[in-house]
Design goal:
Blueprint lengths: L1 H22 L4 H11 L5 H13 L4 H15 L16 H27 L7 H15 L2 H18 L4 H24 L6 H37 L2 H10 L18 H8 L7 E3 L2 E3 L1 H10 L3 E6 L4 E4 L24 H15 L5 E8 L2 E11 L5 E10 L1 H5 L19
Antiparallel strand pairs: 1-2, 3-4, 3-7, 5-6, 6-7
Length: 417
């Protein structure tokens, strides 16, 4: 055992020495060869420990962050790939992996589109390809939810276990990815660009953004997730599972299967099970509240003060489909580009107090649909968010006269309609 410990300590010292050489200006090729000769192989925990020790010795987080991709590049050949552990469907690790797989699919579609742009000879074909490119980028912006969940649900628990350095570095890298995707989005908003200009965008910011996304997936799956799996307790995973819905899901929904201990669920909800939720006009149990939202003859969607989808009701005849994947997503990303300006104006008018209600009605698949947006404010007038209320008024518009006697329109429960 002591020999194994000594070997690990030796590898860690060698790894730090070689990485410091990289920071001092050594070429990645030279450093990679040194690693092959001196270290042979390392596991994820030694890379984590190396970065922790460098920071403890006074190396700024910003320096490690700036060199993080080079660390990954030179250690990739010697990093031992551990067998992937199996987790039940819906476990935070299962959801995390499935999100990364979905992101890979979108990235592949974007790369294919960018490659086609590079071979274009006919300017007229550029518009259709750019539209596909924009749509794929809109999907990829869901990564913000993946990163937010990682930063706010996973990182604090690593810090509870004394692991502070790697989360700081990874958070900085998350922000770099966000910045590159934002830059790409701004470039794709250009009007009247030529095919040559689109080719330049693809070769520069487009290529950089996708490379950064793929590099983060590698870091998450080769280092971050194994670290979490070896560190977190069942209670940690339960708390992450409970906290996750507020940040939402990236491209996919969690599968059914995993459930944390009931005691943790109840504690996490912060709802007195026996007493219910006390409000100014009465008290409802959580079960009753869910039942009411599921029964209302309107569809509700609440967007919080940060413009993120925080809640939607699930009635039996929802007009516009909703997926849990929209939770935590910027509401602007839930609308087609042509509608975003209207969405932004409503939210701005509500936030600034210029208006409190916006109303629309449309014909949708043979139904007359009424859509209203309400500014939600607290007792002091502070803006809390926007409530969307959607209702099918087709039947109500057709009513005439009066009905004063009891009459059911649907078949009795248990009988065919």
């Amino acid at each position: 055992m002591s020999e194994l410990i000594d070997n690990r300590a030796h590898r860690l010292r060698s790894l730090k020495q070689i990485i410091k050489h990289l920071h001092a200006g050594g070429s990645p090729e030279q450093v990679r060869e040194q690693l092959r000769q001196m270290v042979k192989e390392v596991d994820y925990s030694e890379i984590v420990a190396m970065e922790q020790e460098l920071m403890a010795e006074g190396m700024p987080v910003e320096e490690i962050q700036s060199m993080c991709d080079l660390h990954s590049e030179v250690t990739r050949d010697v990093l031992v790939k551990l067998p992937e552990r199996v987790f039940p469907p819906g476990h935070p690790v299962d959801t995390f992996r499935r999100e990364n797989e979905a992101v890979r699919v979108v990235v592949a579609r974007m790369r294919e589109t960018m490659a086609k742009l590079q071979t274009l000879e006919d300017e007229a074909d550029a518009g259709a390809l750019v539209l596909i490119w924009r749509q794929a980028l809109n999907e990829l912006m869901d990564l913000d939810k993946h990163y937010q969940r990682k930063e706010h649900a996973f990182f604090p628990r690593l810090e509870r276990h004394g692991i502070t350095g790697p989360p700081k570095v990874m958070w900085g890298k998350d922000d770099e990815v966000r910045g590159l995707l934002k830059e790409l989005g701004q470039a794709l908003e250009a009007q009247g660009a030529t095919a040559g200009e689109w080719k330049l965008v693809a070769a520069t910011v487009g290529a950089a953004a996708l490379a950064a996304v793929e590099e983060m997936i590698y870091k998450e799956e080769a280092i971050f997730l194994p670290l979490c799996q070896d560190t977190f307790t069942e209670e940690d995973w339960a708390e992450i599972w409970l906290a996750s819905p507020r940040y939402g899901w990236c491209l996919v929904e969690p599968r059914d299967g995993y459930r944390p201990p009931e005691s943790v669920v109840r504690e996490g909800l912060k709802v007195p099970v026996s007493e219910g939720i006390e409000m100014p006009t009465g008290t409802l149990s959580l079960e009753q509240l869910i039942g009411i939202f599921s029964t209302l003859p309107v569809d509700l969607t609440f967007v919080d003060a940060d413009d993120r989808v925080a809640f939607f009701s699930e009635g039996p005849d929802r007009i516009f489909a909703r997926s849990r994947a929209v939770l935590g997503r910027k509401v602007q990303h839930c609308h087609p580009p042509r509608s975003v300006a209207v969405v932004d104006r409503i939210l701005s008018d509500f936030r600034e107090g210029r208006h409190d209600v916006a109303e629309f009605w449309i014909n949708f698949r043979g139904r007359f649909v009424h859509i209203r947006y309400f500014a939600v404010r607290d007792g002091g007038g502070r803006y809390l968010g926007t409530l969307e209320v959607t209702q099918d008024l087709t039947r109500l518009r057709s009513l005439e006269g009066e009905r004063r006697l009891l009459q059911y329109d649907e078949a009795p429960v248990g009988e065919a309609a």
